[in-house]
Design brief:
- The protein is of the alpha+beta class.
- The protein has four helices and eleven strands.
- Strands 7-6-5-10-11 form a five-stranded mixed sheet. It has a four-stranded antiparallel sheet with strand order 1-2-8-9.
- Strand 5, helix 1 and strand 6 form a beta-alpha-beta unit.
- Helix 1 packs parallel to helix 4.
- The mean pLDDT is 96.
Length: 171
């Protein structure tokens, strides 16, 4: 498995990401994650929709909370052809509890906790922490990566405007 030392940092400390560095134009890997009721979900089940993958280390942290709420707010403005998925290593039960408490109802949360298949396939698994790095991917209706942002410093927010602009070009 490929490793990328220093690809991201946490509070300035370099971390290693496991997996390939996906690029624009690559086919989005089809992996299985879990929904909030422990049901397996394949990412290919969203083919035919513009799929925004909002990747966060843990919903129970301030920046992840802000990121997920922001995409939840944007979801209502983007139309029915767009689905926004927040993926983390949080347990499905914790994701469900967090969504209920936060009033998040337009973003679906999915868990990669079981085997880190998403993290490894998308190159966002932090080796030292077994968490996912902060990132945003926009995948078109055919399953091709059209936008990718790996946030260099995990404690910082992604560039929402650039991601939303990439989504709007596909709608």
């Amino acid at each position: 498995m490929q490793e990328h030392s220093g690809a991201t940092t946490m509070k300035g400390n370099p971390l290693t990401l496991v997996g390939p560095e996906l690029s624009i134009g690559d086919s989005a890997p089809d992996v299985e994650v879990l929904d909030n009721d422990l049901n397996p979900v394949r990412l290919s089940s969203f083919k035919g929709k513009i799929c925004v993958l909002s990747i966060v280390p843990s919903l129970d942290t301030p920046v992840c909370d802000i990121q997920t709420r922001r995409f939840n707010d944007e979801a209502g403005k983007l139309g029915d052809d767009v689905v926004i998925l927040t993926i983390s290593m949080d347990l499905p039960f914790a994701q469900k509890r967090w969504c209920g408490a936060a009033g998040v109802d337009k973003v679906s949360t999915l868990s990669d906790h079981r085997d880190a298949a998403f993290g490894e396939a998308y190159g966002v698994l932090i080796k030292e922490l077994r968490l996912l790095a902060r990132a945003v991917f926009v995948v078109d209706k055919q399953g091709t990566v059209q936008y990718r942002q790996l946030v260099k410093e995990v404690t910082e927010e992604p560039n929402y405007e650039a991601a939303i602009e990439a989504i709007k070009k596909l709608v």
